[in-house]
Amino acid sequence: MSSEEQDPARPADPVLPAASPPDSPPVPPAPPAANGELPYESTVTAPTRWVPYVYSERELQAVTSRRGLATASVVFGLLGLIGGVFGIWGAPLSAIATVLALIASVRQRWAWLRWALGLATGLVGLLLTAGWVYYTTAVIPRLWGR
Asked: Residue 89: which domain range?
């Protein structure tokens, strides 16, 4: 078989488009858009998975400042836990911590560690309060013989 004859089982080589002339000047990249996204012209040659999203300062501020509910649930949970050790005085704080943590679990999913800690401390504070209620209503009267 000579080099000009082609094997019928092998497909023909694909036809490549003609390249642009080498003496054409490169196109300068466009400046970033006001909303933080790259303009389409700068992403034509790159695959989409390699083009990073550029966050604006306003978007970064919005994400980092929205942890108030989760932080409040941790604070109330710790105060309720401390109050639950010394009596039933921590019950309202623990209940507030539990409610705030449940709200934060829906609204602030990225702050999951904070709202999970607030939920855990709130529930433990409520369990301590329940223990104190049981102790004062069931154990102490038996100790005094009533």
From this structure: 67-143
